[in-house]
């Protein structure tokens, strides 16, 4: 049975930790044994110490000094393996204030975790008063943190004037298609959280009704004209930049896999992220494949299109 993973994201000061404590309450109330992983950009354990003080009996681990989307991404495997070794019922990951949830999705979509973990929900918390202030750089960072969330809590509703709310919602909807909820002090109805847990469903490999993203597994048989350029051109057909654009159905945002290129003795680890392609020599001896992460991806359609891209199969 796969273990659900909830990802909590939001810019610095949005109110993520207050929501996290409520989510832990809901898990315990529903007889779940959670593993909580908190990522801090700096070297001080702020959120982790708060959560540990409230729930000293739980497994609460803090990863300091770097985000899971960059410096600390290699360590994410170790934390996920630790959680799985403890036999927990639910994994909760609170991203740093500058973290990109897609990097965690990318890791969980890897072959080694696809049969053990699934993304239950990506929950975003955003400071509505910051969006209302319209300071461009801060607004961009705040929106970037929640654009892939399927549930978005617009926090600090008590200090956002009613006349400004529509403008705030419009700015969020310009980049994020998730369901919007206005809240004050990140307070959410316990009934809502209980209902979410009751509706938890594994659909990451297919199309999860509770998240905007899914992943598909594309097999790559040997082919005499399998080149890096041709694979990159095929990925480009379906990819999208994550600058400030809503992810459209059928679009790829991440790709990762092992590919044996024609004429090459070694296998290559291929990765695609935000418009960039990377190839590195690897030692994988299994079949060639690539895992695609995107919105409402169709396994059969993509597999067939890949074959058509190499007509002399």
Provide a brief overview of the structure.
The chain is an alpha/beta fold and 313 residues long. Helix content is 33%, strand content 25%. The chain has a seven-stranded parallel beta sheet, with helices on both faces. A five-stranded antiparallel beta sheet has the order 8-12-9-10-11, sandwiched between helices.
Tell me what the structure shows.
- With 313 residues, the chain is α/β, with parallel strands linked by helices.
- 33% of the residues lie in helices and 25% in strands.
- The chain has 2 domains: 3-198, P-loop containing nucleotide triphosphate hydrolases (Rossmann fold, 3-Layer(aba) Sandwich); 214-309, Hypothetical Protein Yjia, Chain: A,domain 2 (2-Layer Sandwich).
- The protein has 10 helices and 12 strands.
- Helix 1 (16-29) packs across helix 8 (190-198).
- It is globular and about 60 Å long.
Write the layout of secondary structure elements.
Blueprint: E1 3-9, H1 16-29, E2 34-39, H2 47-54, E3 59-63, H3 73-85, E4 90-94, H4 101-108, E5 117-127, H5 128-133, H6 136-146, E6 151-155, H7 162-173, E7 179-182, H8 190-198, E8 214-219, H9 228-238, E9 252-259, E10 267-273, E11 276-282, E12 289-294, H10 299-309
Parallel strand pairs: 1-4, 1-5, 2-3, 2-4, 5-6, 6-7
Antiparallel strand pairs: 8-12, 9-10, 9-12, 10-11
Helix pairs in contact: 1-8
């Amino acid at each position: 049975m796969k273990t659900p993973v909830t990802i909590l994201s939001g810019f610095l000061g949005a109110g993520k930790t207050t929501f996290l404590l409520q989510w832990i309450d809901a898990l315990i109330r529903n007889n779940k044994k959670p593993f909580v992983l908190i990522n801090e950009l700096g070297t001080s354990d702020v959120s982790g110490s708060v959560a540990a003080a409230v729930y000293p009996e739980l497994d609460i681990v803090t990863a300091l000094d770097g985000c899971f989307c960059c410096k600390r991404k290699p360590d994410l495997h170790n934390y996920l393996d630790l959680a799985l070794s403890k036999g927990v019922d639910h994994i909760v990951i609170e991203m740093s204030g500058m973290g990109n949830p897609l990097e965690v999705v990318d890791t969980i979509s890897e072959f080694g975790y696809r049969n053990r973990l699934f993304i239950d929900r990506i929950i975003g918390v955003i400071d509505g008063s910051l969006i209302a202030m319209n300071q461009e750089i801060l607004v961009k960072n705040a929106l970037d943190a929640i654009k892939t969330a399927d549930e978005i809590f617009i926090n600090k509703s008590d200090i956002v004037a009613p006349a400004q709310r529509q403008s705030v919602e419009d700015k969020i909807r310009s980049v994020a298609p998730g369901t919007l909820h206005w809240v004050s002090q990140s307070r959410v109805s316990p009934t809502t959280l209980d209902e979410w847990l009751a509706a938890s469903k594994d659909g990451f490999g297919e199309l999860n009704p509770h998240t905007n993203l899914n992943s598909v597994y594309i097999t790559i048989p040997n082919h005499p004209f399998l080149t890096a350029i041709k694979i990159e051109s095929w990925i480009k057909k379906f990819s999208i930049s994550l600058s400030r654009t809503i992810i459209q159905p059928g679009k790829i945002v991440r790709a990762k896999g092992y590919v044996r290129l024609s004429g090459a003795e070694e296998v290559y680890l291929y990765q695609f992220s935000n418009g960039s392609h990377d190839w590195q020599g690897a030692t994988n001896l299994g079949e060639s494949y690539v895992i695609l992460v995107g919105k409402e991806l169709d396994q059969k359609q993509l597999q067939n299109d890949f074959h058509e891209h190499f007509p002399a199969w």
